[in-house]
Design goal:
heterodimer, A: 112 residues, B: 114 residues, mainly beta, 5-stranded mixed beta sheet
Chain lengths: 112, 114
Amino acid sequence: SQTIHQWPATLVQPVGSPLSLECTVEGTSNPNLYWYRQAAGRGLQLLFYSVGIGQISSEVPQNLSASRPQDRQFILSSKKLLLSDSGFYLCAWITGTLGGYTFGSGTRLTVV
Amino acid sequence: SQQGEEDPQALSIQEGENATMNCSYKTSINNLQWYRQNSGRGLVHLILIRSNEREKHSGRLRVTLDTSKKSSSLLITASRAADTASYFCAPRGNSGGSNYKLTFGKGTLLTVNP
């Protein structure tokens, strides 16, 4: 079956510390992968997406970066977190072009 | 990509009542998707309606699409407390090919009171 794993579920990090969030997909190959962020009471903001290994497109310039070292692995990183990086981070995938997205369960990041 | 705009922003009803949420968008679409998000969780895909369809049903969900008005509605019949969640629409445009990115609005927060 097709599943998506996202971890950790919650994270509290100090300002200036690094960040690494991981997302992995099972049961499919060559998915399109996406990172979204949702601030409290807001909609989802698309941060990065990837259509293949090593291919990353950035939607919003900021101190975050993404990488796709393997077909079904998508990593969101930061060298130095800001308070404004707090939020709910969601990974999603789709195979093909016209179906629905499958979302992970999210990571609640609080930068203190 | 384009973003849908949900209306109302918040909706509170009693259990057993029907809930209707609306979505408007701006350009031509290939399909329109509805998602649900329970508090603190990821989004769950509910239903997809193609541009050549006018109505679609899935269990207690009924979605309509009016491409001439660039609008869609989601009806949840006989609502339950478990339907309490935020609901998002996501119009999928015709351009972009395999690089297409879905964007989401702020959603409608539905509260179903027991």
